[in-house]
Amino acid sequence: AFICFFIQFILESLTKANYLVLGTDYKSYAVVYSCSNLTPLANFKFAWILTRQREPSTETIDVAKKILEENKISQAFLVDTLQKDCPKL
């Protein structure tokens, strides 16, 4: 089951972004995807692996990447966001 929600942005060419939660276990990770048309010939595609842990386990990341793979979403441009020196919240 997909969970869909909308977030409003104040930009000239993009006024609404659609997000799909492709998968989550509700306690450690969520995989989110968005695709928005910029022009009739161009679009923006985004994918996020969101985790509750600053340094998630390899197993958690592997599960999330499998969800991207199952949905035929390229992982070619995924980059790690280092959270090492972030303040604790």
Provide the fold topology.
Elements: E1 3-8, E2 16-24, E3 29-39, E4 42-51, H1 58-70
Antiparallel strand pairs: 1-2, 2-3, 3-4
Describe the protein.
The chain is 15% helix and 40% strand. It is globular. The chain has one helix at residues 58-70, and strands at residues 3-8, 16-24, 29-39, 42-51. The mean pLDDT is 84. The protein starts with a strand and ends in a 19-residue tail after the last helix. It has one domain (3-70): Calycin beta-barrel core domain (Lipocalin). It is mainly beta. A hairpin with a 7-residue loop joins β1 and β2. It comes from Drosophila rhopaloa. Residues 1-17 form the signal peptide. Pfam families: Lipocalin. One of its GO terms (cellular component) is cytoplasm.
Mean pLDDT: 84
What general form does the structure show? Answer: globular
Assign the CATH class.
Mainly Beta
Give the low-pLDDT segments: none
Helix and strand element order: EEEEH
**Main sheet characteristics:** 4 strands, antiparallel
Determine Rg (CA atoms, Å): 15 Å
* Alpha carbon gap, first and last residue: 31 Å
Number of folding domains? Answer: 1
**Percentage of residues in strands:** 35-45%
What's the number of helices?
A: 1
> Structural class of the helix and strand makeup?
mainly beta
Order of strands side by side in the largest beta sheet?
1-2-3-4
How many strands in all?
Answer: 4
What's the CATH architecture?
Beta Barrel
- Look at the structure and name the CATH superfamily: Calycin beta-barrel core domain
- Return the CATH topology: Lipocalin
Q: Level of helix content? A: 10-25%
